[in-house]
Design brief:
Elements (H helix, E strand, L loop, with lengths): L2 H21 L39 E6 L9 E2 L2 E2 H19 L3 E4 L9 H10 L4 E8 L10 E6 L1 H14 L5 E2 L2 E2 L5 H30 L5 E9 L11 E8 L3 H8 L1 H24 L1
Parallel strand pairs: 1-4, 1-5, 5-10, 6-9
Antiparallel strand pairs: 2-3, 6-10, 7-8
Length: 287
């Protein structure tokens, strides 16, 4: 047999076998390895609103929404055997219980379990509930610098405030109301000005609340040398809800982490924050 004939056979024989299998309707098995490990996740509908949490307290009282940062697949910072999402949820629940016992305000948590919410959902919950105050609780990390310690209070920076106000005015529809004013019925220019003014007023109220936290915490909660800061934090960008982010301490510091995770530490935090909230609302009623 010539070399050419051998080559022809090498090509034609496999083709003939495949053709015979198809003709006989023989099913070629497909390996099943790996199919059982595919994870299917049902995605939420686009623009579907988040489920609103329950609100505790008597009607007519001012409402504070407490946000425990991170959650679910996002553990936040980790250190000293602790995870941020767990520590801050414990702090949020302790503050909720303290406020409920006082009975002077209404209170709601953005999450009361190990769920993850994106920043926009957290802000949206506060706005849809028409909250009078929004407090987001976190715990900081200093990486390998375990000696870094102390709490910090964040409000929205001036530049981020103006940028957020501009985006908000551009985004909102004709039925939106901001601090009781229907901005949607105004021209784009007037609407932008109204949102900017509202954001400034909201920022002033946020700054006042942050000062009260620092004052009421004196002697009880240890603060970082830079205890009050401002930053472009997404969770603080509601233009009509005074908002503060409280970094409760450094989870990478052994003393901070143990304090925040202990019942005594949570109780001290809740008492301080509840006092600051009560004073803040009392001042708002007087003004």
């Amino acid at each position: 047999m010539t070399v050419r004939a051998q080559i022809v056979l090498l090509v034609l024989v496999p083709l003939a076998i495949v053709a015979a299998l198809i003709a006989a309707a023989i099913r070629i098995p497909v390996p099943e390895i790996g199919r059982a490990y595919v994870l299917r996740v049902e995605l939420p509908q686009v623009d579907a609103p988040s489920r609103l949490p329950a609100v505790a307290g008597r009607d007519g009282l001012p409402l504070v929404v407490i946000d425990a940062g991170h959650g679910g697949h996002d553990p936040g910072a980790s250190g000293q055997g602790y995870r941020e999402k767990t520590i801050v949820l414990g702090l949020a629940k302790a503050l909720r219980d303290e406020l409920e016992d006082d009975g002077n305000v209404r209170v709601a948590l953005t999450r009361d379990d190990d769920r993850y919410l994106v920043h926009a959902e957290r802000v949206d919950i506060a706005r849809r509930l028409e909250a009078d105050l929004f407090l987001s609780i976190h715990a900081d990390s200093a990486g390998d610098a375990t000696e870094v310690t102390g709490a910090s209070i964040y409000t929205l920076s001036n530049q981020a405030s103006s940028e957020a106000a501009a985006r908000f005015a551009e985004r909102e529809n004709a039925t939106d109301r901001l601090n009781g004013i229907d901005v949607g019925q105004q021209s784009d220019v007037v609407s932008s000005i109204l949102v900017e003014l509202s954001q400034r007023r909201t920022q002033e109220q946020s700054d006042e609340f942050s000062r009260l936290i620092r004052r009421e915490a004196e002697g009880t909660i240890r603060f970082h040398p830079q205890g009050r800061r401002s930053a472009a934090l997404k969770v603080l960008r509601a233009p009509d809800v005074p908002s503060v982010l409280f970094e409760s301490g450094f989870i990478t510091n052994q003393a901070d982490a143990e304090r925040l995770a202990s019942p005594e530490g949570r109780k001290r935090f809740a008492e301080v924050m509840a006092r600051a909230i009560r004073i803040y609302f009392a001042r708002q009623q007087e003004s």
